Amino acid sequence: MKALNLRLLFKKMLISNDMNPNHTSPETATFKTFTDRNAPEELRYLEQLILYRLSAWFPSDENTAKPVLEVNKWSAPLSGYIEKHILSGDEAVLLLIGLAPHLQSDLFDRVIGSKLQNSGDFQRIGGVRGKDFRGFLPTGETALFLLGGDDYEKRLAIQELFWADHLFDKNKVLWLDDRSYGEPAMSGKIIISPEYLDTFIYGKTIPPRFSMSFPAKLIHTDLNWEDLVINEELKEQINELKSWLKYNDQLVAEWGMGDRLRKGYRTLLYGPSGTGKTFTAGLLGKEVGKDVYRIDLSMVVSKYIGETEKNLELLFARAEDKGWILFFDEADALFGKRTNVRDAHDKYANQEVSYLLQRIEDYNGMVILATNMKNNIDDAFIRRFNSILKFSVPEANERAEIWRLAFPEEVSFCNGQEEEVDVPELVKSYALSGGCIVNVVHYASIKALERSRAHKGKKTIYLADVLYGIKKELLKEGKPFS
Hints:
Domain AAA+ ATPase: 263-395
InterPro entries: 26S_Proteasome_ATPase (IPR050221), AAA+_ATPase (IPR003593), ATPase_AAA_core (IPR003959), P-loop_NTPase (IPR027417)
GO molecular function, one term: ATP binding
Number of helices: 19
Structural class: alpha/beta
Radius of gyration: 31 Å
Largest sheet: 6 strands, mixed
Protein name: ATPase family associated with various cellular activities (AAA)
Low-confidence stretches: 1-31
Family: Belongs to the AAA ATPase family.
């Protein structure tokens, strides 16, 4: 009977172990595993590191030797970044600490809970709870405990990884969240940039969504350079922008010119609305395969002192090293001329302009500023632009070409007597920008659809509708129609 009971007990243990994905046998491990099934090697390393540090304060019979750091066994995107930037072991583990809650949300809670079942809170390991996230979020104190243990000098050295001159902060890879005034510097939670988070997990950057933390929208166009009707001089200037985007990285990397050249490229596009400034920015990005982000200045500029600079710093930092083209439309609202200081408001407004001047020079990508009024841009910016491109209202022959490109394919034109006419040629004398012409085409095409039944579905544009659309556009700009 005794032997039977032992066999039954052994069978129950086998069943229990099969149902527990975290089971480890004495032959394969010396302590319980808290990582998810098939978890990457880096999480298993972090689990052992936490247990090792806690064992000094909460001894047990389990074997909790210090784990061996083998970064080459970590997931390829993370280990590749570490190798590319020649990060130290402490820097690599710090990245892992910040990354862990995004990979397995309950890892810290499960490992710490196994040691602190009856010990209450353990302040030395730090950590906070999120507003919506219920799990343990590591703080700077967590990094000090796991990387430095009780070695005071090592803990001081680890703090330097959060300094402003470190790669992590300069490239906005990882940093400490703002904390309440007067609280210890290392009490802020560790934050990893969403773009780098995607890189470490998926091996690629997922385009950021428009939000208060990233007030920019991706510019996309399905059109081509043939659809941009501009003069030859402007085409040649745009070709210079293309060349910089295509070859500057090679110039810096292969020709060793990085220390001799200014970072990035700054260009100003100015001219009336609807002349192709935004369209050009989108085409440039499409030409070289780079994302173009249009900055929403209404969400950047703040009436509160220092907030505008803070918003822009986060934006520029997230764009750093991504190759993004930053497009500031109506840029005079932000890059306007400095004024004589009459009060505190003028003082801080001038400080904003000075900050912007320095920040766009530090950005290593292309910055495009667009404005309707060049004279409103601060002279200090003008001097630092690599190029200034003037977009003017197209000439008559250019307008005729824009009209032809803007209308639907296989369309016919007629006048009031149902006679075919060449509408683009007849209306090219009206001084409209490309944007205004598109508005007129939109209006006239809708009117054509209203009449399509009478023409058995034919695409027929009436001259009268086009002329009425032109009249509306001219009246909007306060110009006479004749």
